Amino acid sequence: MDRAAGQDGRKLGARVAERLQAEILQSGWPVGHLIGSEAQLCARYEVSRNTLREAVRLLEAYGAIRTRPGEGGGLVVAAEPRAFMARAVANYLGFVDLGTNELFDARLLLESTGAALAVDRADEVEARRLLVLAERIDEAPAGPIALGLHGELRRAVIDLVGNPAMALFMSALNELTVELSTVGFGIPDRATERARGGLDDGFERAAKHKRAIVEAIVARDPYAAHGAMVADIELRREALLHARARGRQDAAPLGASAEALARAGMPREVKLGQQLAARMARQMHAEGRVEGERLGTEPALQAQFGVGRPVLREAIRLLEAYGVVRSRRGRGCGLMAGRPDPSYTIDIAVAYLDGLRLPPALLHEAWSPIAGAAAGLAARRGDPDQTCALEHRLDNAFPPAGGLDVEALTACHLQIAQMSGNRVYALAGEIILGAGKAHWRAALRHADSADLRADLDQVVDAVQAGDGLLAQRHMAAHLQALEARLAPPAAACAV
Q1: pTM for this one?
Q2: Who's near 151: CB < 8 A, 6+ residues apart?
């Protein structure tokens, strides 16, 4: 029998969506696979048609499934798992109003690290493919074809990294960048942009950076690949800061971005409900809405955003799944501000990585650069209360009686990620460490923990002293000690 919400406060439709998505991930179904008819799925999950349809709309919103009409139709898989998992991560980060610098600091870290890894993992066939893409970018005129090629090259580099955990976040942050540059802030008129030289100059600079990335990978030069990727991402940061400075988010009408998205290289259509959800979340942050504050009734919100009931309800369902809003019935009814909750995103992303059965070396490879950067930022941004909490978790991880509490050690790493002030790092910690927890338990249960404790003590001392460089240095030593206890490095894995 259907219930409105579970103990976690989420509606049944959202929980059914999570179960259905987990089944898709665990089963490894290919794109186009028929999952089942509406009647079959209602019976499988023991829910009503309305509840199932609510779950389906959630998954359709970020491209996981689609409905195939006609005889023998039903729900089918619409995208590769990484694509719709990237959408889920991008949704959460977009709904919490991730800052431009927060977004690009994370992109710089992950993509420059990824470019250096790609140097060792690209074979001759892949190197030739990158060169062909770079040549096509050089030859393409400024416009939609060139933008599509830039997106194709970025995705090719992500594939070469060979680490699905890193690829998940690199893909999500790239997609969020494109969405913020188009759906969120509009695209200036192309003739106007070209008249002031911005369009052609931007394309020329971007093409030069892409060529440098490709040549460094082909030449097997990790330092040059790292530097070229940094230059390319800083150019994207500059472009998005310029878009935000224009303050065009209220001027760009919903539904007018399909051409802009294609021009910007977005690999999929963004539905109106998704666009509206992103806009509503940004407006709530801009207006300083607090949890429990009333946002308005359904008719009032339809009038405010100029949309029909179906589009508004699709947006609300998405926002509810991430805890951003909640609906209240009865007296004082309407839409209320909530508190963004990452648990949905964390649960499905951990299930995705668990399903890939990644070796611990790849999870460690994905977490190490983030942990190091987070330690440096924690020293600069952490407050005394947070540092005190970190010390408490450290004591729990290494009890006086000896041994090592893996759950508490994980909590130490997560506390440092939270103290960094970068929500990408915090979310990545929950997901990557969540997927790697079983490996840590197996590898560290009976290990000598003296050096692990000594290095983390020095990390905490550096954080207390506000010394970011020293915190990073000692975190690197701690991570090396962890790596020595895990399985030997594995070959790169298909993403």
Answers
A1: 0.86
A2: 174, 178, 264, 265, 266, 267
